[in-house]
What we know:
This protein is mostly beta strands. It is 2% helix and 45% strand. The chain has a six-stranded antiparallel sheet with strand order 2-1-3-8-5-6, with no helix packed on it. Strand 12 and strand 13 form a beta hairpin.
Amino acid sequence: SGAFDGRFVACNEGLFIDIKGxxxxxxxxxxxxHQPADGCFPVTLSWDPSELPSGGYFHLVDPFLGTLxxxxxxxxxxxxxxxxxxxxxxxxxxxxxSNYSINEGWNMLSLPLGVANSNYLSLFPNxxxxxxxxxxxxxxxxxxxxxxxxxxxxxxxxxTAQVCGLDRVECTVDLTEGWNMIGGPNCNVPLSSVTxxxxxxxxxxxxxxxxxYFNSSSIDATKAYWVKASGPGTITVSCSAAPLAxxxxxxxxxxxxxxxxxxxKIELKDASSNLQRLYFSGKLEQNINIESFSLPxxxxxGAFDVRLAGDYRLSESDEVTIEIQSSDYPVNVKxxxxxxxxxxxxxxxxxxxxxxxxxxxxxxxxxIVISNEEVSLLKITKQQAxxxxxxxxxxxxxxxxxxxxxxxxxxxxxxVRLTIYNTxxxxxxxxxxxxxxxxxxxxxxDASQFAxxxxxxxxxxxxxxxxxxxxxxx
Length: 474
């Protein structure tokens, strides 16, 4: 302990040389152990990629299935063990195999390998026939899966699929203006490492799918993604540019959570627990492009999706329309962080064929259950809450010249008389004498024809009577 050491380990023996054949179509593993000398942490392993055998693939990985370290040794010439793992492996494969975690229903996937037979049923024999869709200004059906492209594919159940082929370490992808469905190479590449010479990727528009669209900060192997471009151009997604640890892209990954903290949140969850979140009733900073909060095209029919009208996940408005696509009702709706007060309330309305078929008072944090499978449209509307008592407020401004506003509240419909008197008790004007609905009311009083002085205004509504004083000062 305390002395520097590095060695191969085979059959519990330490070796300086460990020769294994790489001319066979099978996996080879070299186990490496090392320890730094006291005060000399960390240890760096280095090699010459040009001296590796010409065939197959060499990766330096950790013993935990490559979750911490996964270095393509043909693309790099060193690795510094700053995690102090002390145990690493060199893995050789003639072919590379990628594992897919498949969900029941619709999946967005890509092919990061070169394969001899790219028919989707050859690669994924359990997939549902006729459900492979690509995208190019609209969905199209396909029988084959191309590399560096994204696809929808439907499965009858969850499973783990494995596809083997020749390693793909870079993807050059042509984007068109608008939404594009893309895949990446056989590694996880942070968005910050994507080469975008034209700066065409719109910030905040990289989306994956897992029972609902989610905003992503990286392009991961085997997955497909939506990305929105401001114009046509080419981007490059490369394993050689991908750091070992994901980094946050300051230019392409906007500070979403900071922006959304001021907004009310709408959580929608179907009976299969697919969850998606929308935002409304807030204000974006002036330098933020609303297109950063646009959503990709609808997934295929049957896949869960919710969005605000206009294909956005955010609106600055207090009133919004929500579009739902689901094959698994009921759908639960919950609104969080909604700024309600004593003079306003929000309603959630169920719409079928343009007609309202249900209405719910929104209580922040409380679930509303939508059971009617015909409901694919919801509307959130803001209304004044009814007052709980009669009241007459002081006019404003006061003193005034020549006009002022008088406000009063009615907890129920009433016959209302609002009358102006001078200090002698003589009626000089009657502003209201009619039936009014329950709610908050305001009346403008124009005193341009009256002399300066003190006046009284009196309200009578059912059994409620109140009088206040105001001053006209010309």
